[in-house]
Each structure stands twice: as structure tokens, then as C-alpha cells.
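Batch manifest, entry 17 of 40.
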Amino acid sequence: MAADTPIALNGLARALIQQGRLTEADVISCSAAKAGSASGSLLQELAERKLMSLREAARFAAQTFGYPLLDLAAIEKQQIPRDAVDRKLIQKHQVVPLARRQNRLTLAVADPSNMRALDEIRFQTGAQLDLVVVEADKLLRLVETLSETAEDALRGLTGEDFDMELLDQEAPGEASGDEANADVDDTPVVRFIQKVLVDAINEGASDIHFEPYEKYYRIRVRTDGVLREIAQPPLMLKERMAARIKIISRLDISEKRVPQDGRMKLTLSKTKAIDFRVSTLPTLHGEKIVMRILDPSSAMLGVDALGYEPDQKKALLAAIDRPYGMILVTGPTGSGKTVSLYTCLNMLNKAGVNISTAEDPAEINLAGINQVNVNEKAGLTFATALRAFLRQDPDVIMVGEIRDLETAEISVKAAQTGHLVLSTLHTNDAPGTLERLRNMGVAPFNIASSVIMITAQRLARRLCSCKQPVDIPVEALLHAGFRADELDGSWQPFGPVGCERCKGSGYKGRVGIYQVMPISEEMTHIIMTNGNSLDIAAQAEREGVRDLRQSGLLKVRQGVTSLEEVLATTNE
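Output type: C-alpha cells
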């Protein structure tokens, strides 16, 4: 029968017949049904007719021809050197390159006897082939994935219903002629970046990270203080995505050796636009880009939405209503200091008040306020800006951060001469701020006569509406800082559960935890007599000022956050 048939049997088909695994008639019939089709089709036909499973066929081919058997599920697609073999040959012969080392190429095949395919690949690559046998169905799926272009992958991540006209291109001529390059301005990359930005805004994220690595490229967003991966676009697009972001941020796309800082704007509607602060950083495998989302509406939330307790709110409002003096906000990076300051500025922002700010850089644009970006390379430091402000007839001055003695002394003098000064410092708590100023070199008399209030703050994640009551041992509550008389059974602690609304985390949004410490006469006396932060903290406690831990525990009693979150964000 074989002599009468025009069907040419390859090595695998002949081996199946010779070893008695299948009859000659079955093999010829399957080969005839799939004549002229892609490589590996004989195996698929055998599987469809249930003559032999693809797993059995792969095991048979490996044993017969003496090649290793590999499960493609163990292979990371990001590590596949897809450029090692021409894409057309990958599709034509249904093979996948797995690794290349010098002149040797590891190749995944379903039929190792297909000499025509192997000869073509040897000729194209100039490499010696090390074959591994894999199951034909898994190989076919992987080939389809690798054959998908980077643009197709982005379209799959983006979807077809995404609005294309969202990025607000300010300032014509903002980029070089490279902007016209199709590799930079191609539609899939634009669509994908826009979708990432819009999704991050809708999710309430504060930062977006574009991170290139050796084997993959990932995008993460920080929501409620926690980073979460949202996508892994094709690695080959890292240069085009970086170039696109740099163009719309008005950065130099040809400069990849040094960090750059820029800004961009995303127009969501006629009434709402979101600013982004963009920072690039050269890394081993490309430029990492971090975009800080600057939502002006965060400054419009009002003091009630920030989480101040009624007594803390009353003390804060009394301080900003003073005609002069210095109000300091302290806390680590990302603790919400800027939003707190701008909330105060928004309340002070009236037609009869002249407000000037010096920041590095200005994060929230607020109409009616004169904002200055510090530029130390150009000689515009905080101290220089402050001196200029004092000649601009100011009522309220906001300094982004007091970093050195010169800035501190000018701020103190401004507060002493009839101006309200708001600023930030990096200290752990409110009492430590006064000692920090003294260590900078500010005289105790100047501190005592200028500072009227210090607010320390942290941000804790707010429990989602899916929260449930939890049982916490009394010993653990006492160790956390609760007093015995507070454990009277009149309140119930809650813990996170997780639902679709909070994406399984159990938390949605954040709430501020504050230590609001007005400077009393007794504290002034301690400062004047060179008392330390422990003395000031003891006096604050006598005056009823709650420290950060106590304020956090109050939020636990109110069911706003969990005990674990308070313990993680505050020190005892």
C-alpha cells in the first residue's frame, strides 16, 4: 500500500509504523488528510482521531530520536530569544527558540525528524541546533503568542473602546523632530499609555512606575500606599514607551544617561485636568519612569475629609487664623504633608490675602496663589525665593521644606515680622521638630517666638465597607497602647476582608493620623531653657495632646482602620 501512495512519510511517521505503535493505513490516512499543512499537523490529526495523544506522541518522539522531553509550561515567555529565529520560519515550521549561547541554539520542536525545517533554520541562524521535544498543542499556542506583534499585545491590553483623544499636548514644538518618528508616535503605544494613566486616576493611585528589567517590562501603580503590578507590556517596546512619555513631558528624548524631571497634563473633560510630575532614571536595562499624579481636587477636600479629630481641627483652624507665626507639618515622604498644607492655603486663599509659595517643585496648581519652583542650578533656592517674597508684600508664605539654617532663619524672621509662614520638616513627631530646628542652629529664642503649632502626621489605609469585626486578645490591645479603662466593651475592632470594590485588599482609601501640638507658654519656657524633645513630649501629654499612636488607636475604636495598620504606621 505504501508503494502505491503518493504520500511521502517523514521519519516520525515511519518510526510509528516500524515500532508498531500505529498501522501503516492509519498513518498514511492522517498524512493524506493533512498534506500540505503546517509542520506538526500529522500529530494533531492523530490526536483528533484519538489514535495517539499529543503527550504520548511527544514522549515517543523523544525516546525514538534521543532528544530531551520538555514541558513548555516551565518556560517563561519573557526569556525566549524570539529574535534568534526569523518570525516567518517560526510560523512556517512551528518551532520556538528557547535559548542561544554563542553558536548554539536550543530549539523546541514537536517533530525532530523534520530535516527540511531544521536545515532552513541552521542556514538562517548559522547556529548548531540543540533540539528538545515538546507537545504539539502547547508548541502551537506558544508560536501564536510569539507571532503576535508588540502592537497586537498592546491592543489586547488596551481594548478597542478606548478614547484616543485624551492627552493634552501643550506648547507646540515642545519636542524635537524625533516626535514625527513612527516608532514613537505609533497609535498602540499612545493608546496603551493613555489607558494606563486613566485607569490609575480612576483607581485613585498616587504614582505610576514604568520599570524595565533584563527579561521583562512591568508597570506598577501605588494605591493607598501599596505598589501593585497592573501590566507587563512587551519588553521590545521599552524604548518607544519611554520616548513617548518623555515627549509629552517635554523632556529630551535623546538624553538617556542622566535623570530628567518634567510635567505633563491629562485632560479628562472640559472641567477636569490632571497634572503629572514625571521623573526618569537611567537603570541597567533602560530608563525607569515614575509619574506622580497631582490631582488639584485633593486640596479642595476640606479639613474634615483629612481625618482630623474635632479638637485637632479646632486647634488647627485657630492657628491658621493667627495673623503671624510659623506652622510646621512634619512626617516622612508620602505622609500627606503637601495636601495638608494646601488644604490650609485653600482656606486662607481669599481676595484680600497675598499668598506666595516656594516648592521643589510645585505639586498642586491652585488659582490665586503665587507659586515658585525652586531651581538650585539657576541659583533660585528656598532662601532666595523667601527673600524675594518679603519684598512682594506677602500675607502668607509657604516654604516647601526647611532644609538648611539659612532657610530656617529667614522663615523665622518672616514669622516674627508679621507674616504667617507654613512649611514642612522631616522629623518623626511634633516634639522632635523643635529639637531639629535647634540642631540646625536656630536660636532657642527665635524658635520660641515664631513657632505657634506643629503637626505630625501619617497616612493609614482606611478599611473598606466589607470590613468585619475581629476578636483581638486583651493583652494585645494593652500592648498596643490602649488603657485598661478603654477596654470596656463599648466598641468593637474591625479588620480587613476583601471584596471586588477594594480588589481583595480589604482597604479603600487612606485617612490621616495626626499629632496636633499648639505651642503653649509652658512649652515656650522649656524651649528657652534648652529642654529636649522628651521634656516637650511630656508637657504635650499633660496638655492633652495625643501622640500619633494614640490618635491611631482612636481611629481603631471608631472602626476607620485596623489595629495592624496603626501598628505598622506609628511608633510607640
